[in-house]
Amino acid sequence: MEDTLLWIVGVLLLLFCSLDVWYYLRVVVVLVRAWFLSPVFDITAEQSSSGRVVLHDLDLCHMNNARYLRECDFARFSLYTRNGVFKALRALGATIVVGASTIRYRRPLCVGEAFEIRSRIITWDEKSFYLEQRFVSCKDGMVSAVMFCKQNVLRSSPDKILQYLCKRKVEVPEFPEDLQHWINFISASSKALRVENQLDEKKNE
Questions:
Q1: Where are the membrane-spanning stretches (predicted)?
Q2: pLDDT band per the 50, 70, 90 thresholds, residue 2
Q3: Cα 175 from Cα 55, distance rounded (Å)
Q4: What pTM does this model have?
């Protein structure tokens, strides 16, 4: 009996030392919860998920900057489960990954503070979905942080996903001005990095 307990403790220690176990447990909880919530048929509809700042989120009594991005992951998992994007990805043999993200912090979320993450797909192009995710304090409704996220679709396209879900071609929503500025920045950065890479290759010849 003691040997069995020691073996179990050892396995658990190994898991917690080598994997972010809490992250994967949270993913399971989020997906199961979203599965039992009513589906959302409007692909661009805003969806809300709730949270609260707990002790392991803290950095000097407020939520650590990196935790915001982690919470956005969970909110997107819920979003894609309820609006059918995950289902479409599986059917099409595709996957989706973060291509870029930027977040602006406006006011700290403090320990014990409840908040909502309001996520929505703003628009899309040939390769990617563009999302906005807002952290809204339940205390006074202030937007504490806002993030743009570019989600690249691999082995398929946003258009094919939407045709699978809606059974028709869906018109692409207009790109807001602030989002377009961000996309221009990404394009300029990619161009500069490609030039830099070409220069490095020439030096190595």
A1: 6-25
A2: low
A3: 38
A4: 0.90
